[in-house]
Amino acid sequence: MTDMIDRADEAEVLDRLVIRFAGDSGDGMQLTGDRFTSVSASFGNDLSTFPDFPAEIRAPAGTVNGVSSFQVQISDHDITTPGDEPNVLVAMNPAALKADLHRLEQGGTLIVNLDAFDERNLEKAGYTTNPIDDGTVAGFRLIKVPMTSLTKDACEPHGVKPRDAERSKNFFALGLVSFMYSRPIEPTLEWIADRFAKNEQVVAANTAAFKAGFHFGETTETVGHRYEVRPATLPAGEYTSITGNTALAWGLIAAGQLADLPVTLGSYPITPASDILHELSKHKNFGVRTVQAEDEIAAVGVALGAAFAGHLGVTTTSGPGVALKSETISLAVSIELPMIIIDIQRGGPSTGLPTKTEASDLNLAVYGRHGEAPLPVVATKSPADCFNAAIEAARIALKYRTPVILLSDGYIANGSEPWRLPDLSTYERIGVPFATSTNGTDSEGRDVFHPYLRDPETLARPWAIPGTPGLMHRVGGLEKQDVTGNVNYTPENHARMGDLRAAKVAGVARDYGPTEVMGDVDADVCIVGWGSTWAAIDSAVQRRRRSGHKVAWVHLRHVHPLPSDLGDILRRYKRVVVPELNRGQLCNMIRAAYLIDAQPLSKVAGLPFTAREIEHALMEGAQS
Amino acid sequence: MSDTAVTLTTKKDWASDQEVRWCPGCGDYGILQAVQQLMPELGVSPENTVFVSGIGCSSRFPYYMNTYGMHSIHGRAPAIATGVATARPDLDVWVVTGDGDGLSIGGNHLIHALRRNVNLTILMFNNRIYGLTKGQYSPTSYVGKVTKSTPFGSIDPPFNPLAVALGAEASFVARTHDLDRQHMMEIFKEAHAHRGASFVEIYQNCNVFNDGQFNNITKRSVRDDMMINLVHGEKITFGSEVQKGVMMGEDGVPRVVNVDDVGIDRILVHDRYHQSPSLAFALARLNQDDDTPTPFGVFREVERPEYASEVSAQVARASEKSGTPDLGALLRSNGTWMVS
Using CA atoms, how far apart are residues A90 and A22, in angstroms rounded to an integer? Predict the structure, then answer.
């Protein structure tokens, strides 16, 4: 097997490959996909992943509902999506075939675990005849491998019982595709030894299965030709592979360091946001405090209490949690304290599709509070981008003393991509000038502290934290008198305070810098995107432009308040298209703000856009 | 709780410049007086003190204290105070709540703050009515209570606040009432000194919507025969001639008896430091209505790890183990590769 690199020279070179591993929830497909990704990342490919799994922890084995998939695109050039249609589908059982065959490209490679296609499994998947023999898979390049029995045979010499051996069949599959697509094997062998170090038997079984899969490809003629995807020419630098939720956690830690503030997270477990809580709770050495609260409301209460006490208060959740936190977010708007609310959006309404992606909480983030309660909303566009998005959210929150909602989604949260490590010394520090002295005098000329005497430029109020002598003050949800912060119910004051809160948040847009128009500035059509649609839009725009069509594209980091130059930019185009994983929420905001005939391109299916869907919409519009 | 030198303040230092706006005659005035008078005795400073409240009449309390304060959201004060205390274990954090705020809309946060044993001094003003919303029955109103929302009488059985707190593993549980400033100050002082969550129920008269609710117990003329003063290590006796006491019945349920009938040896001795909450629980349930003698004082006080200091200890241990935080190392912690 050490001759792999030499032999790889004989392999046919592909510029990119999309492979989808599909099996039962218990088959270890996420692990398999993850390994294939890591090896490809360290090999130097650019890549993008899309884990796609059911909400049930273990749906009945062998059923379509229980199918868990992991799609990854690897490439020798810069890519942003996990690919539209897989070139290769690995189906570990009939249910996986049923769930995912329709995604496979025509003529694509289909690898099936032949052993799993028995009568019982076929019935569970709802097949009346065997799809391998009945013409269902005609038109694909079918590779039938009895993975279960070959794995058992390979494990037997190591004293592994057949039942235990069967659980290693995902490593057989990984070994096979590692051969077919010329992946280095050493990293995986090392990883197996390390990951399962506590159980020698498992190391032996997984190693044997992985090698058996590799050898099977090498020695039989079943798989035919080998392929190779060469390293991408990514910008020079040091890279790591990162998921969105990890990048968010690290971004929050970085923000705390840049502001020299301890981070306190209040959170309640919810899919797909829980990994941020898990990650942050590991890094207490950065002064991070994490409280797993009794509910979503308490979680945001903890964050707000910590903010009052002088910490960077953060809460992480998904849409249902944001709904519950709404009242506390309004209080934060009213008492004007910095806080970050992270919403990892998922399919809704209600429990909806907890493990599937959607971007339908934009209205909730921008408008979802009682009273006139404006706040800034920041959106992240990709897994690695989460790091900077978290820092940006913190910067706005701390500078303007306002809660900020950061929108991510399930696709970004669980997806991964290579990330060129940033030069941390280039990040501007975040200044947090706590108030330390009185700022006014009362009617009798005594020095007093006015908690609502604003900075004339930012309109932020002073942040005086407990422990500061002489600045004791009370804040609360009742309307406050301008300047003094005392309770005040007069109509004039309420109107003025509402104006001030709105002006403060509107003023955040002054910090954005000019909006970047990507692609062809002089095109007829301009795409306006936000969030994770970035990946599919990027591919679609590239394809359109390669085929000779002009396309302009604006992707928004700040979805509220909108950039002040956006209206003028969009008015230059004949056609404005807004692709969104919702029913046109940003599109409506743009129409309302600028009175232009922006067109929505909606998808609310629990799945990200494919590049093709966006490309088609652009083509159709161009013809009409 | 602050380990700095004793701070010298006067009662005036603790009163804010805001006009107190409770209804004339409200029991809240007496509680505010007791707290403001007590604070100088505690040797703490206004700048290191935070009052957090929810919503309701009692929750206006922070506006009147010259400390840091937050008048927050209905029911959420224990959660917000948990955030304050967890971020800053150096602060003295008080929670002011009522029977509706603390036991109805905020019941969940209250029990979890008690369970975690966050270093909070929780004062629950119990007037058995919703005052701010003008007179609906509350979760501590007795069955049959006729209010605006229960014209035919309430049918919901009430919570017993002390039993709820004990059930939530509260480490300090006490009761006092708004007519006895000295008793309030004594109890608040002990609650403040306790490390962990202290829960104090205060019988508080709402003279507008539920006037005289506690008259049968706390009025000066009946007090001696209706109030049982719990003193650690002493026999639980009461009455104008100390003729009554509390005895454990054979069924395990304590009863009020005439001391002469059973002999003083059979009268229970109060043990507020007992690890088991059984006695405290039984005493909390001694009075089932307003016509039976009611215990006051500290029911239970036990030591348990305090939440915020445990959080800080984990942070300190992690820092000790990993040394100076290194962001660059964190970014490389999942492995990296070079592209040249």
Answer: 6
Q: Which domains does chain B have, with CATH numbers?
A: 11-228 (3.40.50.970)
Residue A306 forms contact with B (CB below 8 Å) = yes
The whole-number pLDDT of residue B335 equals 87
A488 touches chain B (CB under 8 A): no
Where in chain A are all domains bearing CATH 3.40.50.920?
518-623
pLDDT in the model for residue B7: 74
| B327:A477 CB<8 A | no
Architecture of domain A518-623: 3-Layer(aba) Sandwich (3.40)
- Cα distance between residue A453 and residue A455, in whole Å: 7
Share of chain A above pLDDT 70, in %: 98
Q: Average pLDDT, stretch B76-81?
A: 98
Nearest-by-Cβ selection for B80 from A242, A294, A301: A301
Residue A5 has pLDDT above 90, yes or no: no
Are B18 and A486 a contacting pair at CB < 8 A?
yes
Where in the sequence of chain A do the CATH 3.40.50.970 domains occur?
Answer: 240-426
Query: Mind giving me the DSSP string for B12-36?
Result: GGGB-SSPP-SPTT-THHHHHHHHH
pLDDT in tens, B93-117: 999 999 999 999 999 999 999 999 9
Note the pLDDT tens digit of each residue in A530-556.
Answer: 999 999 999 999 999 999 999 999 999
Q: What is the mean pLDDT of residues B30-44?
A: 97
* Residues of B whose CB is below 8 A from A38: 335
**Is a pLDDT exceeding 70 seen at residue B1?**
no
CATH 3.30.70.270 given to domain A240-426? no
Sign of torsion over alpha carbons A235, A237, A242, A248: negative
Q: Residue A412, Cβ neighbours under 10 Å: how many? A: 34
Nearest CA in chain A to B316: A285
Start and end residues for every CATH 3.40.920.10 domain found in chain A = 4-229
Residue of A378, A361, A371 whose CA lies nearest to A330: A371
Closest approach of B338 to chain A, Cα-based (Å):
5
Q: pTM for this one? A: 0.92
A528 interfacial to chain B (CB closer than 8 Å): no
B148 to chain A nearest CA, in Å?
26
Residue A40's H or E segment, with its range, is helix A29-43
Q: If one looks up domain A4-229 in CATH, what number appears?
A: 3.40.920.10
Q: Kindly provide the ipTM of the predicted complex, given to two decimals.
A: 0.96
Mutation target for B interface from A474, A481, A488: give the one with most B CBs within 10 A.
A474
With 0-12 CB in 10 A as exposed, 13-18 as middle and 19+ as buried, what is B334?
A: middle
